[in-house]
Amino acid sequence: MSTFxxxxxxxxxxxxxxxxxxxxxxxxxAVMGGATFNFFGSLAGGILMFxxxxxxxxxxxxxDPQILRILxxxxxxxxxxxxxxxxxxxxx
Length: 92
Hints:
Blueprint: E1 17-18, E2 21-22, H1 23-40, H2 43-63, H3 67-74
Antiparallel strand pairs: 1-2
């Protein structure tokens, strides 16, 4: 019996980021900053909105890189797990 060694590089497990923020959250911050600029016609407002959302995106990425996926999938799950209930059965 022989064993095989398969190297796994650390960069594979790192989240894809732009300036330290997860790329989807960065794109959201950029789009919201641009929308704010267009809606209010204020460059300072657009930059302020982008900066605030970018800081929030960096914090979310540092806290948990999968937070966006967790939040989006949480609406599909039950609020509380009840082990006595059979899957698909509801007695509410």
